[in-house]
Every structure is written in C-alpha cells, then in structure tokens.
Amino acid sequence: MSSITSKKLLTLILVLNENEQKILLGMKKRGFGVGLYNGFGGKVEPGETIEEGARRELLEESELEAVEMEKIGNNLFTFENDPVGLDVHIYTTTRYLGEPHETEEMNPQWFSYADIPFHQMWPDDRLWFPYVFNKTKFTGHFHFAQDQKTIISQELIAVQHL
Ligand SMILES: Cc1cc(-c2ccco2)c2oc(N)nc2c1
Fold first, then answer.
1. CA–CA separation, 126 vs 109, rounded Å?
2. Residue nearest to atom 5 of ligand 1 (CA)
3. How confident is the prediction along the chain (162 residues), in pLDDT tens digits per residue?
C-alpha cells in the first residue's frame, strides 16, 4: 500500500513506424533510468501543456518533431518508503519530422515489435507495451520496492477515455 504525499508530472512518448512494425527507443545516457532503453520524455515545464512538454522532450532527446500525438496511457509509479509518486502521461506518435540522432540524454535505436529489449528496460514495460501496440488506452499503477527494480504490486486497466 503506497502512501504518497505528492506526485511528479512526467511524460513518455513512443515513436512508432507502423508500416515496418518498429518502435524507436532511446538508451538513457545519464540520470534517472540510466542504462535502460525507454521512450522519450521528462518533466513538464511551467506554462506548457503535458502534450507540449512531451513534444519538447522528444525534440530535445531525439531531434524528432511529433506532428500528431495520441494519448495512450497514464501510469502511476510509486516506491516503498518514498512519499513522491511519478505520474507519467504516455503518448504515441506515428507522424513525425526529421531523423533520430544521439543527444546528450539519449541514444536512439529502432526495434522490431518482436525484438524489444525488455531485459534492458523498466520491468513494467513488458506489461503495458501490448496495450500500446493494440492501441488500447490504459491506466496503470506499479508499486516498486525500494530497489526501484522489483515490482511489488501492479494494476493495469483498459479504459475508454483518458
Ligand atoms: C519507475 C518508472 C519510471 C519511468 C519514467 C521516468 C521518467 C519517465 O518514465 C518509467 O518509464 C517506463 N517505461 N517505466 C518506468 C518506470
């Protein structure tokens, strides 16, 4: 049972090449989640919408500009003995401009849907990525042990609207 007293608002954007059934993931080069592949994203700045924040982070971290984005999910991540939860708003984009390039934060790489490196990603990803590929909107709550690696409990619900 998590007893958070505050939440940090974060974004995560997944770039999909639907024709080739590939997803663009970034290898995180520093900071929180370093050494793991993930979508692109980060904090929402004051004065920007969550979607604008997601678009900005994608551009900063991959040099791609999302033309359209679809809201696909919302995950709450909580940790044992930590009063701050992470409220992560998740988007996909299939229409984007530019080519992905390595940046200070991320080293981008395309993966076939069948070859996603889940063993080098956050352990929750393998649970909710199928919702993304099926375009099923979802809300999730993943409660982590203090090691930030082990999921103690989880809830994942398909929803009609986010
Ligand atoms: C605990 C946790 C955090 C994040 C995160 C940090 C910043 C944006 O997302 C995750 O991202 C994914 N895919 N699983 C995650 C688990």
1. 18
2. 88
3. 678 999 999 999 999 999 999 999 999 999 999 999 999 999 999 999 999 999 999 999 999 999 999 999 999 999 999 999 999 999 999 999 999 999 999 999 999 999 999 999 999 999 999 999 999 999 999 999 999 999 999 999 999 999
ipTM: 0.97
Asked if 39 and 14 count as a contact pair (C-beta separation under 8 A), the reply is: yes
Query: Could you tell me where the DSSP H helices lie in the chain?
Result: 50-62, 125-133
**At 148, which amino acid appears?**
Q
Ligand 1 touching residue 86 (CB < 6 A): yes
Contact in structure between 87 and 9 (CB atoms under 8 Å): yes
Confirm or reject: Cβ of 74 under 6 Å from ligand 1: no
Query: What pTM, to 2 d.p., does this model score?
Result: 0.97
Contact assessment for residue 2 and residue 144, using Cβ atoms and an 8 Å cutoff: no
Q: What's the one-letter identity of residue 118?
A: F
Task: Please say whether the beta carbons of 57 and 42 come within 8 A.
Answer: yes
CB atoms within 10 A of CB 74: 18
Asked whether 93 lines ligand 1 (CB < 6 A), one says no
